[in-house]
Amino acid sequence: EGMKVSGIRNANRKLLLNLSDFLVDTYCLGVKDAMYRVVSPEEFEYYRQQTRDRTPLKSVQQQRKIIETLKRNLGSDGFDFCS
């Protein structure tokens, strides 16, 4: 219940997507694990569909605040949340 996965993506200059996933502990308000990889738009759509098929999507406002704070602390502001 308190552990959530949130995804962030943005496009790079080669038209590939930079995909990041974060395991967020909403009770302790922290990022517990993170993953980063570069994928093609087709791979991203496959990944997103697999996620939707297995897990219903929910609002991520609390996780968003935690990850935005992490991004600011790391000096990054160029990512969009997946919808």
Considering the chains and any ligands shown, give keywords for the structure.
83 residues; 2 helices; flat
Describe the structure.
The protein is of the alpha+beta class and 83 residues long. It has one domain (3-75). The protein is built from 2 helices and 4 strands. The chain has helices at 41-54, 61-74, and strands spanning 3-11, 17-25, 30-39, 80-81. The chain has a 4-stranded antiparallel beta sheet with strand order 3-2-1-4. The two termini are 21 Å apart.
Question: How would you concisely characterize the structure shown here?
Answer:
The chain is α+β, with helices and mostly antiparallel strands and 83 residues long. It has helices at residues 41-54, 61-74; strands at residues 3-11, 17-25, 30-39, 80-81.
Q: What is the domain tally?
A: 1
How much of the polypeptide forms β-strand, as a percent range? Answer: 35-45%
What is the overall pLDDT average? Answer: 71
Q: How far apart are the first and last residues' alpha carbons, in Å?
A: 21 Å
Assembly classification: single chain
Major sheet: arrangement of strands = 3-2-1-4
Number of strands: 4
Helix fraction, binned, reads 25-40%
Compressed to H and E, one letter per element, the order equals EEEHHE
The count of helical stretches stands at: 2
Shape annotation = flat
Q: What's the alpha carbon Rg, rounded to whole Å? A: 13 Å
Give the helix/strand class.
alpha+beta
User: In terms of per-residue confidence, which ranges show pLDDT below 50 for 5 or more consecutive residues?
Assistant: none
For the biggest sheet, the summary is: 4 strands, antiparallel
